[in-house]
Amino acid sequence: MIEVENLSKSFTLHNQGGVTIPVMQGAHLWVRPGEYVGLTGASGAGKSTLMRMIWGNYLSVSGRIRVGGLELTGAEPRQVLALRRRTLGYVSQFLRVIPRVPTLDVVAEPLLALGTAETEARDRAGALLARLNIPRRLWALSPTTFSGGEQQRVNLARGFVHRYPALLIDEPTASLDAANRAVVLALIAEAKAAGSAILGIFHDEAAREQVCDRLVDVGDFTPGAARPEGSAA
Amino acid sequence: MSPARNLAEPAAPARPLLSVAGLGKSYGGRIGCADVSFDLWPGEVLGIVGESGSGKSTLLGCLAGQLAPDRGQVIFDTAEGPQDTLTMSEPQRRRLMRGDWAFVHQNPRDGLRMGVSASGNVGERLMAVGARHYGDIRAEAADWLGRVEIAADRIDDRPRQFSGGMQQRLQIARNLVTNPRLVFMDEPTGGLDVSVQARLLDLLRGLVRQMGLSAIIVTHDLAVVRLLADRLMVMKDGRVIEQGLTDQVLDDPQAAYTQLLVSSVLQV
Amino acid sequence: MSPGDSDSPYNFAYLDEDTKRMIRRAILKGVAVPGYQVPFASREMPMPYGWGTGGVQVTAACLVPEDRLKVIDQGADDTTNAVSIRKFFERTAGIATTETTTEASLIQTRHRIPETPLTEDQILVYQVPIPEPLRFLEPRETETRKMHALEDYGLMHVKLYEDIARHGAIATSYAYPVRVGDRYVMDPSPIPKFDNPKLSDNAALQLFGAGREQRIYALPPYTKVVSLDFEDHPFQATKAEHDCDLCGASDSYLDEVILDDRGGRMFVCSDTDFCTRRRAAGHVGCLGEPA
To answer: How many Å separate Cα C84 from the centre of its chain?
Structure first.
């Protein structure tokens, strides 16, 4: 479902003397339908960078990425957008929404974008929010005013409201209490059972053991030894 | 429900809605915009960003038929097939402007008739395309004013009695009432309070989704394009220096100027 | 007096022959394109703008020595404007004048169409203050010309829409816009909308002259003229709900005359010739005396 081959990435900072910072080299991984692959590695090893390259908001320098049969490197924006609407979901660590939009609408939006009827989309969004223990009285408020844990759960609801065949999850349990953590792990297990291919980052080791089928150490792809000459890094 | 379903592209449109090639305009020796080429597909929202004087407004004017470019093509997929809007006759172009195209100005006063009631403003486009039943026109106008959250008891008020945000929503209703396929927007949230901007952005996003609109939005506000645009074009000195997916251009800018632009913003 | 009559201090009908030729060319163009406003080089006339300088120039260009001229102002032959224009042409063209509609070969009018149907032998010349029907909606002349050229007339209906929204009915009661021959939208000059149906399919040639605005336009005989309206608010030619108090006519346009300061009033035909001839024929209204 998700295939990454010989991927590399560097940043060129034009406004800081044009330095080029290589951050990844020769990355290789794949995730099959129904499989959960966990990314491990020290902080700064490039876990989030790799996720973003698969999501498409970071460009790769070389190599290839394929999701659901679409070659992402060199794809037209509209192909990537269609992929994100239908096939590829992403639960990031940060919630980015239009201020003043009610939480229920924020969660229902991915369904509306797919053409689901409004009442059905809201019902499904509500069911998921209830399951993630977001009190009903908050649904009409914008999530921008919520606590970190609440925002994260809203973000998770948004990611699970449509059953994406491929899903990227960044630290889903980071600031959750035990009860909510259990709900999230159950959601992940259900998505897997339904055939979703999931690539995730977990710092929570117990959780990682519970849901991950395989682990990939991003440290293997870090171009650590070969520091660029003249680099200030 | 199986996640393996729906993997195929949804019935992909056969051709772009708008196809721009080699578009350029100079003011004397000074470049307004140059060598602009891109395709806009049905349902896509394209953001054009850049600082004042970068040529983004000139480009929008050339695309929307308000300025005459010196060279290039702007091919629109009309009901009769793709046609170059720069070489079509003026009546044809006006027909496009009244029906398939819409233009939302930064200043609502440029896009509204200030002496005509709100419902009359919305009804004008309907009457321009031949509607002649008062009751139907009024009902349609009232429906649209409701969609942009203008209260039913204000529909006979004139726009000068409205707040800035209401005027802008009225302008949007007036433009969308004929179900256009392509909307040009010039700084649609400029000049509004931040809180009003947010509501307007949400409204626009909902309408774009519900109506399957394609849109080209010119703005200097990166937060606006982050929320509204699927794709981004960055302009400097009249030229497009970078384009791509909105979050890719903002999160991983490649050109030096884009990196500077993105890093100069307080928080996007 | 005739063209070139050396005894007269004026050329026939005041204007010089070159000017009249220029105006006739504009009239011919107007006839060829019904409802289209033809620009012309309007001359200074020995009367102020607003007193019919456009109509007078059109009349001067059309007059021949055999003509019999009638001039009406709001339907009446005996008001200042009508009397002075009639005298002007008596003196500068030496032509015969009349107050009887059927006897006139050329009628210059301000703000009315005679009640008596016109014939193919007659010309009706209107005095027009503002020829552009779109003027109050779109002040830019460059833009209104384009709108006419492209038949971009949605705005015209906006005005009627606003009327209905505000008053419940189309409140425009004079200078009511019309569409000529399915093409140009035209201002019929400030005639009451009661007269609008008479514009259409009229046997006479109708010419419109705007002196200050330097425009001439025309309706050739038997031209189709339609008053703009909405399907659910159709055009209605309205008048005071009354009969003429002098001649008893129920189908003519009426003026309201205040008789005293205690609310006394009467309604009389605005077309004085029409009223006079009905009374001569023995018709009597409720306040009238047999002639």
So the answer is: 17
Q: Are residues A57 and B248, on separate chains, in Cβ contact within 8 Å? A: yes
CB atoms inside a 10 Å sphere around CB A179:
8
Domains of chain B: 14-100+182-268 (3.40.50.300), 111-179 (no CATH)
Query: Is A72 contained in some domain?
Result: yes
The whole-angstrom separation of Cα A82 and Cα A227 is 38
Pairing of strands C225-227, C178-180: antiparallel
C247: annotated active-site residue: yes
Q: Helix (H, G, I), strand (E, B), or coil: what is residue C55?
A: helix
Show the domain range for A48: 1-87+210-233
In a domain, A34, yes or no: yes
Say whether residue B159 is in contact with chain C using an 8 A CB cutoff.
Answer: no
Nearest CB neighbour to B248, from listed A14, A15, A59: A59
Is residue B177 a contact partner of residue B183, using CB atoms and an 8 Å limit?
A: no
What would the DSSP string read from start to end of C77-101? Answer: SSSHHHHHHHHHHHHHH--EE-S-G
Residue A8 forms part of a structural domain: yes
Q: B127: distance to nearest CA of chain A, Å?
A: 31
The Cα–Cα gap between B124 and C88 comes to 47
Q: What total of structural domains would you count in chain A? A: 1
Using a CB–CB cutoff of 8 Å, tell me whether B119 touches chain C.
Answer: yes
Do the Cβ atoms of C161 and B135 come within 8 Å?
no
The domain that contains A32 carries what CATH number? Answer: 3.40.50.300
For residue B87, pLDDT over 50 is answered with yes
Task: Tell me if A93 is assigned to some domain.
Answer: no
Residue A28, pLDDT above cutoff 70:
yes
How far does the CA of residue B91 sit from the closest CA of chain C (Å)?
A: 6
Give the H/E segment covering residue A9. strand A2-13
H helix or E strand, kind and range, residue A217: strand A214-217
Q: Which of B227, B251, B252 sits opposite A98 (nearest CB)?
A: B227
> pLDDT tens across A65-92, in order?
999 889 988 888 989 999 999 999 999 8
A78–B contact, CB cutoff 8 A = yes
How does pLDDT run across B160-189, given as a tens digit for each residue? 999 988 999 999 999 999 999 999 999 988
pLDDT tens-digit series, residues B116-168: 999 999 999 999 888 999 999 999 999 999 988 899 999 999 999 999 889 99
Residue at A180: amino acid letter? N
